[in-house]
TrEMBL record:
Keyword entries, A-Z: DNA-binding
Domain of life: Bacteria
Region annotation Disordered: where it falls in the sequence: 279-310
Keyword DNA-binding found: yes
Classification via PROSITE patterns: HTH_MERR_1, HTH_MERR_2
Domain HTH merR-type residue range list: 6-76
Protein name: MerR family transcriptional regulator
Residues in the signal sequence: none
Record SMART domains: HTH_MERR
InterPro entries: DNA-bd_dom_put_sf, MerR-type_HTH_dom, MerR_fam, Reg_factor_effector_dom_sf
Pfam families according to UniProt: MerR_1
Annotated source species: Streptomyces zaomyceticus
Composition bias type Basic and acidic residues, residue spans: 286-295
């Protein structure tokens, strides 16, 4: 074979900026296959025009694009050069979103370290009434949450219109675990309706009716930008901290209740309530009722023999 147009692996490594070890790995994974392998020595040779491809691989790996994705993009299975450009633009948008999320998380953490969550999130306790609800569930992470909720509630309102159902409260979401960019969990879109009125019929597959019992809820509210992800995570943390610090037990999935919702995640008019069902210790609460009719418990008074939560 004429090797004048070939570079041995050492020279190719220098030209491409990829280590010899990386080149062997990319050969084994089918990302960058040498033009010739000496059958006796096993030494790898690459064409000179493969240098640009190797440099592209190096750049994509520096962007944390997985090896399998690099192989797919360079293999022509994604629409050639136009597909590669589109994939890189999508990757850039995702990276910018991750950076924005990280920036918000850092600012939130700094705020909690310097001010404390109690400075921005006031936690109260109220009684949640028993409810009959329409439920649509899915297991997903935060990236799919908005689209799922929009579709689920559109379906529910269509079902409600056939009744027609009498809705008795705002829509809410139940999270059965952590739902962020790295974790999937069961998420349930919920819509309460009057149990003594018309009842839903011909439910779509995957939609059910469920009875929620009366419960005690530890709550806080957020508005505007604070109601958008990831800023809203601080509200969940504040309620969780309050529950643990006051000696309560978590008694069910956390709820995100749409008290006022414009349809745009960070709109100033949005108001969400984070409500977590709890089991309370033995004791009596001092309770008052606000102008909106919702009761709020302000203090815990132990009964004889009870230990007050610290």
């Amino acid at each position: 074979m004429d090797r004048r147009n070939l570079l041995p692996i050492g020279q190719f490594s220098q030209a491409s900026g990829l280590s010899v070890t990386a080149l062997r790995h990319y050969d084994a994974s089918g990302v960058l296959v040498p033009a010739f392998v000496d059958p006796v020595s096993g030494y790898r040779y690459f064409r000179r025009d493969q240098v640009r491809t190797a440099q592209s691989i190096r750049a994509m790996r520096q962007l944390d694009i997985p090896v399998e994705e690099v192989r797919r993009l360079l293999g022509g299975g994604s629409g050639g050069e136009e597909g590669l450009v589109a994939a890189l633009q999508a990757h850039l948008r995702a990276a910018e979103r991750r950076l924005e999320v990280q920036r918000s998380l850092v600012h939130g953490l700094l705020g909690r370290l310097t001010e404390g969550a109690e400075m921005t999130h006031h936690v109260t306790v109220r009684r949640g009434a028993a409810e009959r609800i329409l439920v649509r569930g899915a297991t997903l992470d935060n990236s799919g949450l908005d689209a799922f909720l929009r579709g689920a509630y559109q379906e529910m309102y269509e079902v409600g219109g056939r009744g027609p159902l009498t809705f008795t409260g705002p829509a809410f979401v139940r999270f059965h675990g952590v739902c962020d960019d790295e974790n999937e969990t069961l998420v349930e879109a919920c819509l309460p309706f009057w149990e003594d009125g018309a009842q839903p019929t011909d439910l779509p597959e995957g939609m059910i009716v469920r009875e929620l019992p009366e419960s005690t809820l530890a709550c806080t509210e957020v508005e505007g930008a604070a109601a958008a992800f990831p800023q809203i995570l601080g509200a969940y943390d504040a309620v969780a901290n309050w529950i643990t610090e006051h000696g309560f037990a978590f008694a069910g999935p956390a709820r995100m209740i749409h008290r006022r919702w414009t349809g745009t995640p960070d709109a100033p008019g949005n108001r969400l309530e984070i409500a977590w069902p709890i089991d309370e210790p033995t004791g009596d609460w001092v309770e008052s009722r606000g102008s909106d009719g919702r009761s709020t418990r302000h203090g815990w008074q132990p009964t004889a023999g009870a230990v007050s939560p610290q």
